[in-house]
């Protein structure tokens, strides 16, 4: 019910982030299943499981932020911190994508968009809270 409700622009951005990360999550699950069936070495399996956990946590965080945005509750301390953390995570992915090194799950442009969305909301919520 709340996933399809889009009362404001922030909510639409968080919905896009949730769907994007959920897609990465399911793709990584499929990779892990294929790796188990093909007897991949344990290091590669551990690396895949670690990345799966990152996608899982960030998907839940983006959905939580979407729900908070739906209810106009982004000024809460927890939501400010979640926005700041996701902004840093997406910025790191954007930097890796720009440098074309390491683990890059998203295109740099998408990472920059989600980083700016989360960072702006963290900053504006902090300023509203202090005012």
Explained architecture:
- The protein is mostly helical and 131 residues long.
- The chain is built from four helices and no strands.
- It has helices at residues 9-37, 42-70, 77-99, 108-130.
- α1 runs antiparallel to α2 (42-70).
- The longest helix is centred in the N-terminal third of the chain and has 29 residues, at 9-37.
- The mean pLDDT is 89.
Output the keywords.
mainly alpha
Number of helices: 4
Strand content: under 5%
Q: Structural class of the helices, strands and pairings?
A: mainly alpha
Can you tell me the overall shape?
A: elongated
Termini Cα gap: 33 Å
Helix amount? over 70%
Radius of gyration: 16 Å
In oligomeric terms, what are we looking at? single chain
Quantity of strands, as a count? 0
Order of helices and strands: HHHH
Low-confidence runs of at least 5 consecutive residues: none
Could you give a short account of the major beta sheet?
Answer: none
User: What does the average pLDDT come to?
Assistant: 89
In a nutshell, what does this entry contain?
With 131 residues, this protein is an all-alpha fold. The protein contains four helices and no strands.
Could you give the topology of this structure?
Blueprint: H1 9-37, H2 42-70, H3 77-99, H4 108-130
């Amino acid at each position: 019910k709340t996933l399809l409700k889009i009362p404001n622009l922030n909510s639409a951005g968080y919905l896009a982030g949730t769907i994007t990360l959920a897609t990465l999550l399911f793709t990584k699950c499929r990779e892990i299943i294929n790796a188990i069936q093909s007897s991949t070495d344990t290091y590669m399996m551990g690396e895949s499981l670690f990345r799966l956990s990152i996608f899982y946590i960030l998907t839940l965080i983006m959905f939580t932020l979407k729900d908070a945005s739906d209810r106009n509750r982004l000024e809460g301390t927890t939501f400010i911190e979640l926005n700041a953390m996701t902004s840093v995570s997406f910025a790191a992915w954007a930097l890796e994508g720009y440098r074309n090194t390491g683990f890059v799950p998203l295109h740099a442009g998408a990472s920059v968009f989600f980083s700016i969305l989360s960072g702006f909301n963290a900053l504006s919520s902090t300023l509203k809270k202090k005012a």
